[in-house]
Amino acid sequence: MSHDDATGEGRERFAPVDDQYDPGAVEPRVFDHWEAADAYERTVEHRSDGEDFFFVDGPPYTSGAAHMGTTWNKVLKDLYIRYHRMQGYDVTDRPGYDMHGLPIETKVEERLGFENKKDIEEFGEQAFIEECKAFAQEQLVGLQEDFQDFGVWMDWDDPYRTVSPEYMEAAWWGFSQAHERGLVKQGKRSINQCPRCETAIANNEVEYHDVTKPSVYVRFPLADREGSLVVWTTTPWTFVANTFVAVDGDLTYVGVDAERSASAETGTDRLYVAEACLEEVLEAGRYDDYEVVERVTGAEMVGWDYDHPLAEEVADHPQGEGAGQVYTAEYVEADRTGLVHSAPGHGEEDFERGQELGLEAFCPVDSDGVYTDQAGAYAGSFVREANDDVIADLDRKGLLLADEETTVREGQCWRCNTDIVRVVTDQWFITITDIKDELLANIEDAQWHPEWARDNRFRDFVEDAPDWNVSRQRYWGIPIPIWTPSPDSSATGDGDAAGWDGDMDEVIVISDRAELAERADQAVDPEEVDLHKGTVDELTITEDGTTYTRVGDVFDVWLDSSVASWGTVAYPSETADYEQLWPADLILEAHDQTRGWFWSQLGMGTAAVDQSPYEEVLMHGYANMPDGRGMSKSKGILVDPGEVIEEYGRDPMRLFLLSVTAQGEDMNFSWEETEEMQRRLNILWNVARFPMPYMRADGFDPEETTVADVRADLELVDEWVLSRLQSVEATMTDHMEAFENHRAVEALLDFVVEDVSRFYIQVVRERMWEADDSAGKQAAYATLYRVLEEVTALFAPFVPFVAEAVYTTLTGETGHPTVHMCDWPEPDERLRDPELEGEVEVVRAVEEAGSNARQQAERKLRWPVARVVVDVDSEAVAAAVEARADLVADRLNARRVEVLGPAEEWGELRYSAVADMSELGPAFGDDAGRVMEALNAARVGEPTLDALRTTVSEALDGGVELTEEMVEFRRETPPEVAGVEFAAEEGGGVVYVDTALTEDIESEGYAREVVRRVQEMRKDLDLAIEAEIRLDLAIDDDRVAELVERHTDYLEEEVRASDRGAVEDGHRRTWDVEGVEVEIGIEPRGADRREASSQASSE
RNA sequence: GGGCCAAUAGCUCAAUCAGGUUGAGCGCUCGGCUGAUAACCGGGAGGUUCGCGGUUCAAAUCCGUGUUGGCCCA
């Protein structure tokens, strides 16, 4: 809507607005207004004395632009931030960005043309970190511009960034707290290693694809008995590290003498396999005969020794205490051979079982996937490429039974698609398995919406969660603040922890910059120091004659965001906000964060301070394509929010995101629905636009004339719409408090479309059009103003632009500088009247049925009907219709409304019967035809068999026995009466409309036909509403002309005709009114004439 | 392979928790209104409630199973 001075001063109330809601025009104006009026800053300031509400923003990762998912997320956050502000809270709205991590390193490497870690080392760590920092910052700016463009109000000038010293320090502090509670340790773990990135990949960063791999059956010769164990694998390269063979203790295994007689490779082998797998193994090994010579359980095989299949090639193969033996293991299934080759230096399950058994985790593979010298003959080969060599060696030694291929799901690095290798390396852990009970207890302290997300999914996950591996062997991350004793006293700076025995009491964990400055050997300025790897790796600590050096690793990025609840308030460098606000009142993310940020925060909060860092969680779904597929930027399957804005606007997009999808569910984006949202907002726009010219013309002043001032003059519909408004407010507040935003906004849209637009405004239009000002008119103005003002506030958090535009036009200079400073409207109980709401609901049901009946009778609404008869089935409905008969008469343009209660019969009604011949036939035989004719011809006063029997018996000159099955009753209304059923909450009935014409009705009907056409001609001339005209009317039918002239006063008042007579050079048109030719001429009078002609000439 | 969520009119969703005649908006179509008018309002058609099986007097709803999609995990 239009105003030049965006600060509110001098802006004109009820100023003319665009005819159509055009988001493309409204939104830029609102942005300008916000900027000029400092709308955001003033809104924040307005609530600065309110109760604190600590919202914590889950930081989006800074690689790539905002997609529909992030858009939805931020718009939801904006909604709840705005809502809580309107509820009076002083809301923390600091946005955050997750800026560390491998994905950014990968992108920077691409940009710089790097292929692996060595390129980074050559480029220089510090320089590489600076590149990453610059890249992440670039991405941040792009993201932030997008978020602002969506109309999201957060503290964009001061986002928290996980790369800032204050934030990194927050991570150090949390980690050091966990350490002090004894929850940090170093340990070996089987990890997913990306050989290209040379780092561990979190399980959730692994993507699975189907790949073709070797499928080999190999026999391991037993050491102290005849025969071999048969194992199967898809990773022959791991045979190098084979340490034991696993069996299922309960499973039956057989020893067989298997023969190949037909082929070239003749001979007999004694093989041990699970009995259930025997056929498969023999077939794979191309044996054609066999004899079972032994049958044992897996348990009985435990302790059997075998020879390492690559003992000659790998001199260092596992051969210590307990190696090369059979053990039981949970992970064995009666599949393939029923015996599992186990390498604790690689596989996760193998590793865990190996730990239990006290076996060495032999891992002769480096971080780049290349065998170390320990791998003997294979040293220097990339493991996957060594598969063929291993297979060839096994074949040469006669150990290979079968060499096939199979398709399996294989993990790949999510960034570079390199196949993962499982290796065992030294990693740092937060041992959350030690605090499982506390974690499970702390879950209870947060309320989730929807609840099942916590009680089903989240709890299961927490119960099964392993220790948290927080270390990554990369560069772009928060350095792990652990300094370990160095073997020599000189500072090497390479983070080598050799020389330290793993005792956590002997390490130093630094918790903040001040402590670092104090304890470091080098001079450190805590204000200036950058905590990244390039800097801190140079720092050593020397205490009691021992020099400590930092471990080389950085934190997994999940640790970064896990400290967001205190990182947001810059704890520990600032303490006041933390003490006042923590923990978070609300966090709000998509369901992938259940095992992501919801979890990492709980884990970190519990490890550091044994408390849940958040109290309430709103979980939403994923944004999918219209057909339900997931969006994927890399595959080009996506809907770009920018395009949606371009096409339909910000508010319609927001409204779609906030109104269509239920809490916790995935959203399927829909262009059609977004367009529909624009149409709904157009109704809001028109509802607001409709009364303004009248208010302006009559000089209505909402400050002077409030609803309270016009209480006595309120009409029924005014009271009704005000009551409905209160109910909608109560409903919306309930839904918003339950985080059911889609229900809340649906209730509001319903109110605007159904109640205000379709009913209230329809009813109130006549009052607005009255020429003279009146108390009733002022009452309508005050009512509608109140409705619009509060509706605008209710819409504000959902569609901030259009709400702002309407609000500023409504309030002019008198309101807040922005609608977003308004309080959330609370229902005023004094205005609530549930009984009235019920009555009007009945009236509307009756109106609907009545309109339908009119349509059936083909009588336009413009023509009055003599009477409407409402036959109801409940006293409550009868009372409602009787009480509101005037309104019913008005809505249906009826002269009279009659109500028939449940006990009354309408004397004019008759019933007929439709005969069912399949029943009549058997019952009456030859007479069936006559009975049918009599039945069909019968008209009875009540729908009962008795009445029918009497009538039919008379017609047939003899009694007949009728049953319920034989007939179906039909209502027969009098001629020119149409009846339609209706139903309301407290009962229903039938509305009969009597459309019989009388001269009186014709007179009014024709008069209204003429009025309508004159109005159209006034509009042709673009006349002002109050402009007066001279009217020239010639009707080519004397009877009709006389009928119309009976309503001369009405006619002249309606069309503002202050003069009658010949119109020579005015606007003339000839109309066909119900078959009668009517010639109309009009011309504006006096001052209106000049105005009209000047308007005409300007077009 | 496992867990959680979803599947209802051409489209987007209600009704499912707590079993009782499947409903709304859009679209389509027919009509009305005519100073909100490129707006607004009414009627109508449109359903194997994803398939199969079970429990029940009664199933969209509860149970089992399969299919498809989403997310998480392996």
Brief characterization of the structure:
With 1099 residues, the protein is an alpha/beta fold. Among the domains are: 211-419, Isoleucyl-tRNA Synthetase, domain 2; 666-832, Isoleucyl-tRNA Synthetase, Domain 1, CATH 1.10.730; 838-906 and 976-994; 910-972, no CATH class; 999-1098.
Task: Describe the structure in your own words.
By secondary structure, the chain is an alpha/beta fold. Among the domains are: 211-419, Isoleucyl-tRNA Synthetase, domain 2, CATH 3.90.740; 666-832, Isoleucyl-tRNA Synthetase, Domain 1 (Orthogonal Bundle); 838-906 and 976-994; 910-972, no CATH class; 999-1098. The protein is built from 37 helices and 38 strands. A six-stranded mixed sheet has the order 12-10-11-8-7-15, sandwiched between helices. Helix 7 packs across helix 19. The longest helix has 29 residues, at 741-769. The protein is elongated, with a radius of gyration of 42 Å.
